[in-house]
Amino acid sequence: MRQVLFDDLGEEVAIPGEARRVVSLVPSLTEAVEVSSPGALVGITDYCTHPSGLDARRVGGSKYPKVDEVIELSPDLVLANSEENRPEDVQRLRANGFPVWVMEAAPTVPAALGSLRRILTQALDLSEPDWLVTAEELWREVLPERARALVPVWRKPWIVLGRDTFAGDLLRRLGVSTVYSDHSDRYPRPKLDELRACFEEGRADLLVLPDEPYEFTSDDGPQFFPGARYALVSGRYLTWYGPSLVDAHRELSSPIDAALGG
User: Fold this and answer.
1) What is the pLDDT of residues 189-216, one digit of tens each?
2) Could you give the angle at which helices 244-260 and 130-139 cross, rounded to 10 degrees?
3) Domain range holding 47?
4) Cis link prior to 75 (omega < 30° from 0)?
5) Is the pTM of this model over 0.85?
6) Whether 122 and 146 share a structural domain
7) How many domains is the chain built from?
8) In Å, what is the CA distance from 8 to each residue of 61, 123, 194?
9) N or C: lower Cβ tally within 10 Å for the chain?
């Protein structure tokens, strides 16, 4: 029996019975599915690194998956994300008769967890996983603001967190607002002089540097902002929505607390 559902973008997803063969084109969704339903994944991207020891066919990257290889796997369901995957790849898979669930790029932690709940309990017909409930409890509270951060996610060119981003909301719940949260773009591309001015003019008092998608390190990043307090954080904990959120609260708080002298 086919069940007809609707993904985050309102597109119809007709799943033929149970989704026993799943292809995930999003690393964080890969982790969420594997932890919640071990063995359901038959295809994943080259960037799907968690959990370790994944046993599924690699089908290229998120931006440029090998669609022909996805088709060869005859999946019952393909998982994608509106920000990470190209519409033309989603359309081609659907044109070949494969149901694709597109998760919207979540602007907040609750939105991401709500979307994950729908994927797991509706599309995959699973019971609500314990990690999801724990993550909701951990991230429900919003701490009082204690710092205002500049958060680059790329260099060459510089790209920073702007409005309505999952990572920005994650930091906000730890008491760290972001300088460009009211910008018209989700990921602005200011020049370096403008970024430095954020500290010189007192609009920022913390630099948060993740190790993905760009791998900032103690030797690559801080030197562009002399004298600024900085925290090196895991990009996975900052940007992935899924089981990693359970550890993310502790793993992000620790370097931020250290940078702020807490």
Assistant:
1) 999 999 999 999 999 999 999 999 999 9
2) 30
3) 2-134
4) no
5) yes
6) no
7) 2
8) 22, 12, 36
9) N
